[in-house]
Design a protein that fits this description.
By secondary structure, this protein is mostly helical. Helix content is 60%, strand content 1%.
Length: 381
């Protein structure tokens, strides 16, 4: 009798231990604060940021001449700066400021003209440098970029559509490509953070509603453009990251905030369904035969980490997805801190195969930048 009782006690104890282990394992799987050595945001972020600092201006896709700083470099620069801030690394901030200094002098030709969303996003870098250094030169330059986006249409890119959007209170740089919703929201959010002037981010919130109404589908995902009906990974990544940046700073009493939050949550719920077993997302999100792509995975991971940290998303649901994605994503980094499987710069096209056939690059800053954003987001309180 005693033996049977002991056996039952032992079995029950084993079950409790097993259940506790499973529960603890589940808790760890969703933990966004503790990572194994070699995979922490501090280690990964520093490697990628140091690599960025040591890299020359890449000028991806630009004719020669002229050469200007393009948006992938802007996004990696901004990510390096936010990582430096999150880690309190003032030496790194100085290195990133030193990279900028020649732009005030002999290399000012590298500064793009703010006449297109891909160029205007550059303003987010001097605005972040101003926030960290309080050097007024950065504020003056950054504001010029942010103000131009809602200023009167000027330059050779202006057309009838530009003037019509401007007349309705939207930026004249509107083109209804999902990429825009990071390029616009990043610089406008930064302008509000740097100046305290809410008109910048309120304009961006109004713009976001236009894009949501035009491009978001019932499943929460976005076509690349109205005449490119495909759920392209990085395009959706720009939107996910853009909504995250916007929602971090748009006032709670802004009438457009609830609509943007609902759209963000619908998108995140859809992304959960399409995440691969290993944690990645694909070049075409809903095509299981398409290849795992790192830039979109980084952007979606950033958006989920931000949502969990800000309390917009359920930690038990989205924490494990974000953690799995981060741990898989960083396995694509090589010894030089270059990430592979990055889709090349992509124009929109009404052709499914076009997206599948895009080149897969290594070290392209479209992919480097989201790693830095994720590292920053993981370190934010």
């Amino acid at each position: 009798m005693k033996t049977a009782t002991f056996s039952l006690w032992l079995a029950a104890s084993s079950l409790l231990i097993s259940s506790a282990s499973v529960a603890q394992s589940g808790k760890k799987d969703g933990d966004l604060t503790n990572f194994p050595k070699g995979s922490t945001p501090q280690e990964i972020g520093k490697k990628v940021a140091d690599h960025f600092i040591a890299s020359p201006h890449p000028n991806f896709g630009r004719p020669v001449p002229p050469k200007v700083i393009t948006y992938p470099e802007t996004c990696a620069w901004y990510g390096s700066l936010t990582f430096a801030k999150a880690t309190g690394n003032k030496a790194m901030t100085k290195q990133l400021a030193d990279r900028f200094e020649p732009l005030f002098g002999s290399r000012d030709t590298l500064i793009p003209k703010p006449d297109h969303v891909d160029y205007t996003v550059f303003g987010s870098v001097p605005l972040e440098l101003y926030l960290q250094t309080k050097d007024a030169r950065y504020l003056t330059l950054g504001k010029r970029f942010a103000d131009s986006q809602w200023g009167e249409p000027v330059g050779p890119r202006v057309n009838a559509a530009s003037r019509e959007f401007y007349s309705k209170g939207y930026t004249w740089q509107t083109r209804l490509w999902i990429d825009d919703m990071f390029m616009i929201t990043a610089v406008q959010s930064q302008a509000t953070r740097a100046t305290g002037d809410l008109s910048y981010i309120n304009n961006a919130a109004k713009e976001m509603i236009l894009y949501l109404d035009s491009l978001q589908k019932p499943n929460g995902l976005f076509y690349h453009a109205p005449n490119a009906p495909f759920f392209w990974g990085r395009g959706n990544g720009w939107m996910a990251a853009g909504m995250s940046e916007l929602l971090r700073s748009v006032p709670k009493d802004n009438p457009n905030r609830p609509r943007i939050m609902a759209a963000y949550k619908t998108m995140m719920a859809s992304l959960l369904k399409y995440q691969a077993e290993d944690g990645m997302w694909r070049q075409l999100i809903d095509d299981p035969t398409s290849w795992p792509e790192t830039s979109c995975t980084g952007m979606f991971t950033f958006a989920m980490i931000t949502g969990v940290k800000e309390g917009w998303l359920d930690k038990a649901t989205y924490g494990p997805a974000a953690r799995k994605a981060w741990l898989k994503l960083i396995t694509y980094l090589d010894a030089n801190a270059d990430i592979s499987e990055v889709c090349e710069g992509t124009n929109m096209k009404n052709d499914h195969q076009y997206y599948l056939d895009r080149k897969r690059l290594v070290g392209d800053m479209h992919g480097q930048a989201p790693i830095l954003w994720c590292a920053t987001a993981l370190l934010r309180k």
